[in-house]
Design goal:
alpha/beta; Rossmann fold; 9 helices
């Protein structure tokens, strides 16, 4: 099973991905984690990424796709994978499609968790308040201002990826505001 989870920050992608990892025994691939691992391992593509990151630049789509291509060759990804947080742009989606085609692979599903963004902001603010009240540290991405910045970046840059997959006929939209179990059941239904 090869799957992409789309949706704004806080929509529940990580929660659903963790459930799918457990259920299907496939890895959740985070581009950030893969970049850090490739740099640490000193792979050829990791060395290119390190050079760019050390100079303060953004890693190019070609480097990111190269890192994903390398990662898909590892044994745990042979049965499938979940991409969470990638692709972030239409250019990345095009590059991913090309790379998968070159490997003779295709996506089984692209699932977008659709949420009411104001309710999402309220949910994050409540989560931060609950953490403070319990004497727990507030996650950096649960800070309401940080969250609103991330949400704005998603709306500006990444929200265009869903229509890309919709045109290809591979997008399924789910109500991400429903209870976790209902969202999980809907994902299972889509995946058959």
């Amino acid at each position: 099973m090869r799957l992409i989870l789309l949706g704004p920050p806080g929509a529940g992608k990580g929660t659903q991905a963790a459930r799918l990892v457990e259920k299907h025994g496939i890895p959740q691939l985070s581009t950030g984690d893969m970049l850090r691992a490739a740099v640490a391992a000193g792979t050829p593509i990791g060395l290119k990424a390190k050079e760019v990151m050390d100079s303060g630049g953004l890693v190019s789509d070609d480097i990111v796709i190269g890192i994903i291509a390398d990662r898909l060759e590892q044994p745990d990804a042979k049965k499938g994978f979940i991409l969470d947080g990638f692709p972030r742009t239409v250019a990345q989606a095009d590059a991913l499609s090309t790379m998968l085609a070159e490997k003779g692979l295709k996506l089984d599903a692209v699932i977008e968790l659709v949420v009411d963004q104001q309710k999402l902001v309220d949910r994050i603010m409540k989560r931060a308040a609950d953490a403070k009240a319990a004497g727990q540290p507030v996650r950096k991405d649960d800070d309401p201002e940080v969250f609103k910045t991330r949400l704005g970046a998603y709306n500006r840059d990444t929200a265009v990826v869903a229509p890309y997959y919709e045109k290809k006929g591979t997008l399924a939209r789910l109500d991400g505001m429903k209870p976790i179990g209902e969202v999980s059941a809907a994902i299972d239904h889509i995946l058959g």
